[in-house]
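Morning - zinc ion inputs below, output right after.
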Amino acid sequence: MDTLISNVTIVTMNERMDVLFGGHVGITDGKIVHIAKVPPKEAPAEIIDGTGMVLMPGLINCHTHLATAALRSLCDELSITEALEQQLKKEARMDSRIAKAAATIAAAECLRFGVTSVSDLYYYPAATAEVIADSGMKANLALSSYRFIDAVEEFDFHKDEQCQELKRVAEKWHGHDNGRIKIDAGIWAEYTSNHKLWEGLAAYAGENGLGFQLHLSQTQDEAESCEDRTGLTQTELLSCHKVLTVPVTAAGCNCLTDMDRKILGKHHASAVVTPLADAKQGRPCASIPDCVKAGMNVALGTDGALEAGNLDLFEVMRAAAMSVRAAKNDPAALSASAALMMATVCGARAQGRAAECGMIKEGMDADLILVDFSAPHLMPCHNVTNALVFSAKGGDVAMTMVRGKKLYVNGHFPTLDLNNAVRELMEYAMPKLFEEPKE
Ligand SMILES: [Zn+2]
């Protein structure tokens, strides 16, 4: 046995939602091999003392844009349209070196807050893949493709620059390190693309076993604009053009109709709700109970650091539960266990990783976090699942491991060169993004 985490409170997130107090979890070759109240007979190479800690599956952030960390806090008071304009101006100056530095900072933030796997929808997926490969964390990386809505005639998947970039990235990175990295197809949104692109990407994703990431119906304006233009809702339109034939991860889902949810549920699509980014940007929040009732898998996302301010999924869990309780005027409308499930089990399902992570179970990857329960805001603890959702914060995470390898321990990031990333961000990225060129 390589590692034993001993004397720890274990929140398994298994089918029975078992919680073990004073338990022991053993890890061999990156897999969980022992979960019990008693330690294993075999002596481990390393013991991690879990006294005063809670061990749980690593959180899965199913919607972010890692590289927008370079633009954090830039347009926090602007409307969605104004913010997007600002973002596009800065993104025009971005390059893969900036994306790499920003994605490194964001990956460190994820690990620091107990996130072991992310779904990322952005540009420069090759640069982000390099960061993820080095970091040791898991990721589903999608290239956010776009086309002008009326540029339909010219499209050819084999000549389109972004489609060819996706193909190159998928050939190099899809399945990297036994599936630690997966590549997905993606579009930013319905309103930034057209049906030929959707059909081309869906066909490529279907042939190559990729998922499909997008933003869907985040605002009433985009939903209404699509209906005015086409007579169909965005979901109906995308469904007509084969997008739902592959596993879809749809971020937002704030302005869906009952029929949209029914269609998405029938196709086992995942809704990724982003309640904090929505609230920050003045958007309505998705109706989690309606999505669940329609058969959708509901996972959680922070959105990017630009959109959300930070990548703390603990805050998102809390906000998701609170938003449903407030909307339903019912403190039992969404339990803490359900919020934890969305951040773990349902996240793994959205990423096509349900068999490998999201629970503490023998045979699964040791994607685990230790949450330090010795802080004043976690004392006393009458109910550990309630405390994880309503009292804990990302900053309480003391250790994050993926496949049994420690990636964050008490302020240290053994796999990331954070100093270099900060230097790159300050000395290269900031001047390139923000300084006006000299005459
Ligand atoms: Zn987003």
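Note: The CA atoms of residues 277 and 308 lie 4 Å apart.

O.
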